[in-house]
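Worked example 4.2. Below are the chains of a multi-component assembly; read each line carefully before continuing.
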Amino acid sequence: MRQVLSRFRYHLAVFFAVIGPGFITAVVDNDSGGIYTYSAAGSQFGYLPLWTLLPITLLLVITQEMCSRMGAVTGKGLSDLIREEFGLRITFLMMAFLVLVNLTNVMSEFAGVASSLELFHISRYITVPLAAIAVWLLVVQGTYESVEKIFLFACVFYVTYVISGFLVKPDWKEAAIYSVRPVLMLEPSYIYMVIGMVGTTIAPWMQFYLQAAVVEKGITAKEYAESRIEVIVGCFMTSVIAFFIIVACAGAIWSVKPRELQDAAEAAQALKPFGQYAFLLFSAGLFNASIFAACILPLSTAYTVCEGMGFESGVSKRIREAPIFYSLYTLLIVVGAGVVLIPQFPLVRMILWSQVLNGMLLPFILIFMILLINKRDLMGEWINPRWFNVVSWVTVVLIIGLTLAYVGILLH
Amino acid sequence: MTENLLFFTELLSMPVFDLKDRRLGRVKDAALVPLVHASRIDRLLVGGEYSWLTVRYDQVRSISIDRGIHLSDEVLVPYHDDEYMMRIGRDLLDQQIIDVTGRKVVRVNDVSMAIGHEGGHDILMVRDVDIGVRSILRRLFQGMLPRRWIRSLQQPIPPKSISWDFANVVEPDPLRRLRLNISYAKLEEMHPADLADIVEELAPAEREAIFETIDSEVAADALSEVEDPKMQASILEALEPEKAADIIEEMAPDEAADLLSELEEEASEEILEEMDTPDKTEVEELLEFEEDTAGGMMNTEFVALHENANVGDAIAALKGNEDLLDGLNTLFLVDEEEKLSAAIPLARLFVAAGDARLKDLAAETMIQVRVDEKQHRVTELFDKYNLLTLPVVDEDSKLAGVITADDIISVLRQK
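Applying the procedure described above to all two chains together yields the following structure tokens:
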């Protein structure tokens, strides 16, 4: 018995040794918004949206690779670099926008907490305040780091989608064909969904978070080659999970009857091969994903803003030493959780708008990233090669185009 | 708000007039030449119609927030960048500097200057580096609102600034650092733990710049206070092996060995090669041990005497080992074969007669461990017997080194 236990411990140790910033970012990327969007895509359109995953992965790899490279080479966060190279006014505008966008993201995370537990008829007026307090305490008490491992481990939940993806016996031939065959339809709800998938996968906060995490971990230019692999693997993992969520939903929901998802209970149907445990698994997974992101988002936002604006920051500081850092952190949680509790608050519309705001901010951040990464005095030999620049500018143009289309559809 | 105070944000885009009151252009930047004067603005850079011009400080007649800058000399040279110049807008604003008194890293939002008068000229002296909300407000509205309005707007916000004398600019490029006369001497006076905290907040290039420049002894103290072993290693690896060796020599041998074992084989070999022989052998011996055993935790800084020695001998031995005194609390006795026989708490020497035999002062029970004892057993012993110092012996019971309470605290903290 003891031997089994120690072997288990060994495997755990290996598991946590290989995970780094890239892995965590990838996991948080599949937050409540991600699960919801992919589920909706699969239930409504079946295998059709699968083709978007390849280009999305490519965009994801390009953006994530750039910011982790910048972090490793300069040893500075993205907001630090923007501040040092573009001045205070631009930094301020960007930070103000980022706080607003991330606030809406935090809202959708707490909405995820609420709906995951409402599956068991536990009122959100109990769960959301409790979750908010727990998140706040975790970070302020400095216990977050140890809990992070639990969150990461709980993400094994995504494996249930992979298993389910096989058990629902989807049409693999069709899935394979549509993974590579682009399907363009001029139906608004389809375009809307495709853009939503891009928006939920590539978010502004990730760029700041990943770069800061690379710096925090002390990865240097010399070790960057290994780190790059980890980042790229993380990106693919995000997409693989997305693939299986869509396939599971297509097999379990769409093949029965294509429809728009009404609530979390319907989304849980994707796990129906697990029988009576489907609800439990889905709810546990959604809860974990939401609360993990609810921990990371406010913290990362407070760090980013304080570093860019030059305020003291860090959970190792006392509240009196870093007042702005802690107030911002608290504000994001209180408002983010509070809004979910307002009766008749248009939460779904709010979450959609948060995707739009994400999409509007992202091109600016990408533009700054490309400008920064091409500065030789910052990056030395690590600046972008020309072909990479071409690809990244195309990425920016694509994302701007998609965002404009998205806003256009929303306004109609 | 005093009239002779001028913020850099206010100086920017201030109009510059020649002798006949014709407008030449607007201020684009201001520069110090630290080799000449540490705080006087030496040159103003003025954007003319086609190119930038340089205005020397003694070509300025008057500076006023309302009336702009009037010159007393019209022979202006075109601007060209030179390496002796620290431009406030380019090199200082928005960058990180070290607040020596506040012991932290801060970001420069604005710079405040005093308008002084000297020999018929108005001159600007850098006074403070502004940080905090007030200066952010000023930067945000700079150029959008009249300067006077901004001054009254910021009135209710308390100022937050660091005196220029206590601000330390960090410059990673050694040549530029020399030309700009930037030294890290002020940092050397800080407590090593504070210096380590500051260093941890900086980017790698800046970190290395500081360690390259400061005194090896201070560097050694600060480096052992850096908490993350990985960061310690990357700092050492980035330094020239010679400088790294100097720093390592100043460290306690056990810490030096721990640190070197974090480095890559090649890098640590290089550093060892540069070290002086006595320090080198000591560190090399310690490197032989596994990190999580008593041997890997111990250091070789102890004082051992022969069994038959008396208190007078002990005092003499201590005088010969003055560099060890700060951390010492126990003496050890060994027999002819260097086998450990007794431990004597240092304080007992004070209450004993000068000719008393040390053996009689020894603690009743002596706790000791072998070099291959596991780390967690060692910490257990410290807890159980309330130890300050634990002797470590090799296979032949010879005294090999000691583990002190501070080593245990570091081990526990890292868990």
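Take a moment to check your reading of the output against the notes. Chain B touches chain A through 20 residues (CB under 8 Å). Residues 277-287 of chain B form the longest helix (11 residues).
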